[in-house]
């Protein structure tokens, strides 16, 4: 039999039998594999990654912004309502999710599953910065609404440029605007999701998982009560089968086509809208060393929520860095290392209506992406000067960010809608699942994978809870409603992760 991508298999093709097959070595598979290895140490686990190492696609530190998303500074998680008020609900939900993620990291460090915390996480103030009266009023309302909650009670607010200079000197340098405002939470984080994925996957392998890099999964088909994966070893060009009882398609942008190949009903009607991006990376050490924060602003009209501009300190391979962006763009690829055929190849009769409806209803987004694509280097610098007025063109280089594939799904009224969050797809029997979408992304890998375990293994989950609570102690609690538990948990994770 010959598949479209040129892979040939026959009756003599060798077969590997596993309990669990993880497709892709990004933060999602790495997190799920770590949970499964702890709660079911007897299960055989295999991980198949197309690239040379784990964490090289969207999870790579230069492909994302490394923000430990907790809604401390990202204004898109707390938009103003029609009456100007700010509902804290969504921001609280995002923050609660990151509290679980912090506990998982803390467990991983304390158990030597990963190396020292500085190899992947750093404390970093999270700031929001706005210009103009409407934005100032909004930021003040947002501060008052969020800071009344336990999870946000350390949020500071100022309209004083001298205070902003103290918090982030680059933001005030050369600024002539008078009507500015900023908020800040000192306890934010920068996370190198690439380093974390790679260390988690190394640990999986060290504890017996069959981890194979440069192995591409080319097909997934039903086989009895489980699944048969066709896997191509890119080095030897050999193809083999993997028979697994449970499959997780953690292939990032590559998840949609693989789930479509599996033929499960649950993927029907879903499509993907790829958004590419670029960042400006600072090359001047002196400038890099004068900034120590993630500074998020307001998105432009029509911009997707995750394209909010931000001036970010990063820590990559232990070295401090600074970047600004993202600048949006369009490419039909579903992965940075993907193919131009990815988008057209994902169109099916079942998702054609939703995809056309999204194209028709999102002209603002299309306009935004086209405008971004047409921007000259000088125009890109102008966008950055909103945040760093004295920025000098010579100090910055352009880098290509990771691809995001936004979820398109059926909608009974509109035909189809574009969704900016993530969506777990799972077959009715729970034997195969996958993750579509991007935001809030890597920061929520822990709660997303815990939710996936509950959904795919409803009969086993209760029996796993004690073990899971060793890894994520406040699982099942709402920390915003229990300030004593929150303080105690925060102090202990801060101590282990060297965040205090
Ligand atoms: C510009 C940008 C900025 C972002 N900023 C942030 C941020 O600040 N904070 C945050 O939390 N999140 C952020 N995200 C989102 C975050 O990067 C992603 O949600 C997260 O990395 C996704 O992890 P993943 O494991 O699903 O995918 P990936 O990391 O992409 O991993 C998927 C893996 O699957 C492999 N693969 C694909 N197809 C196959 C196949 N057929 N066979 C075998 N292997 C395959 C790929 O090579 C890849 O290694 C950002 C994303 C982008 C693009």
From TrEMBL:
Q: Name one GO biological process term.
A: tricarboxylic acid cycle
Name residues in a coiled coil. none
Which Gene Ontology molecular-function terms are recorded?
(S)-2-hydroxyglutarate dehydrogenase activity; L-malate dehydrogenase (quinone) activity
| Keyword vocabulary terms for this entry | FAD, Flavoprotein, Oxidoreductase, Tricarboxylic acid cycle
| Gene3D superfamilies reported for this sequence | D-Amino Acid Oxidase, subunit A, domain 2, FAD/NAD(P)-binding domain
EC number(s) reported in the record: 1.1.5.4
Per the entry, which co-factors are needed?
Answer: FAD
Q: In which pathway does it act?
A: Carbohydrate metabolism; tricarboxylic acid cycle; oxaloacetate from (S)-malate (quinone route): step 1/1
One Pfam match, given by its short name, reads Mqo
Q: Which domain of life is it from?
A: Bacteria
Show the catalytic activity.
(S)-malate + a quinone = a quinol + oxaloacetate
The record's annotation in HAMAP family points to: MQO
The family line of this record is: Belongs to the MQO family.
Q: Can you name this protein?
A: Probable malate:quinone oxidoreductase
Organism of provenance: Galactobacter caseinivorans
Q: Which gene encodes it?
A: mqo
